[in-house]
Amino acid sequence: MADVLLKVENLTKQYAGEHKTSPIRAVADVSFEVMRGEVFSIVGESGCGKTTLGRCIARGLEASSGRVLYTPEDGAAADFLTADRASFRRLRKDIQLIFQDPYSSLNPRMTVFDIIGEPLRANFKLTRRELEERVRTIAEKTGLNPQYLRRYPHAFSGGQRQRIGIARALVTEPKLVICDEAVSALDVSIQAQIINLLKDLQEQLQMTYIFISHDLSVVEHLSDRVAVMYLGRIVELAPKGELFARPLHPYTESLLSSVPVPDPSGKRERILLEGEVPNPASPPAGCPFHPRCRFRTERCSVEAPELRETVAGRLAACHYAEELELEGVQHGVSGHTAIG
């Protein structure tokens, strides 16, 4: 995990506003690095831009500007967003997506074998025997019975369908997998199985994950580092343990205040934010979070803070990150806490 696999630079995605209003910046000038072999999580309320960011990285959506530099093990860094057709085709198999909904993400008219095998047909020239062997192997690794590969998705439960989606994403042996709310549509008991499966597969196949979620307990369980997004921007980025123990941004503190603590005697007061998330078509001046922040000053309303290193290995977009004493949570989150 010593070298950079993916470097996102100034990534922006904006949409035209209705009736000639200001453009909506769903992702606003986001930059970060993902190290080879880590689980890099992106967390935030619904509508913060985390899913849009993930899909722009994978080129499921076209970014408005910015770069996504991917470095394969045997080559130089290439901008995934501007790669020509031949280069994109070569790199595409290395970056895959696991989607949120295990029902709508699978073609009901295709057998499970064809669903899993489709990326192989698109990216490799394989014999029928080679194709069948690859599909059967990844089916077994993801906990699917190879005898059921000729069935259709409707014959499977939600948890089994998500295993099919995971198998489809991993069959090309990718180096980076973007998990977009990959367990949020599942029952809690099934979530635990899928989370453990993802961890086991990462070790077996030596993959890197970008894990997008609004469930802090899942993020705490899986992550190496965590980026917190608000209104299309990263407002804090830190190693998981440090972020959960002592947040540096007031928004992160408010999210963590909703996490249940294992010890009932250690109850903390929930921090309820003022107002609503601002309209991204007309974000507030200064710090985007300042209208809802209990620590805001006049400076916050006129000067936007940069995402900067406040202590070694930690970034925060807050003017007062070094001064505030914010409360985190005890390491080892219990239960599941959705934040958006």
Describe this structure in words.
This protein is an alpha/beta fold and 340 residues long. The chain has a domain at 108-173. Helices cover 29% and strands 21% of the residues. It is built from ten helices and twelve strands. An eight-stranded mixed beta sheet has the order 6-7-8-3-9-10-12-11, with helices on both faces. A four-stranded antiparallel beta sheet has the order 2-1-4-5, with helices on one face. The longest helix is centred in the middle third of the chain and has 18 residues, at 188-205. The chain is globular, with a radius of gyration of 21 Å. The two termini are 31 Å apart. The relative contact order is 0.15. The model is unreliable at 333-337 (pLDDT under 50).
Key terms for this structure?
single chain, 340 residues, alpha/beta, eight-stranded mixed beta sheet, four-stranded antiparallel beta sheet, 10 helices
Number of helices: 10
Q: What characterizes the major β-sheet? A: 8 strands, mixed
Strand content: 15-25%
Integer average pLDDT: 90
Order of helices and strands: EEEHEEHEHHHEHEHEEHHHEE
Span of the ends, CA to CA: 31 Å
Strand order of the largest sheet: 6-7-8-3-9-10-12-11
Name the helicity range.
Answer: 25-40%
- How many strand units? 12
Poorly predicted runs are 333-337
Overall shape: globular
**CA-based gyration radius:** 21 Å
Instruction: Provide the structure class.
Output: alpha/beta
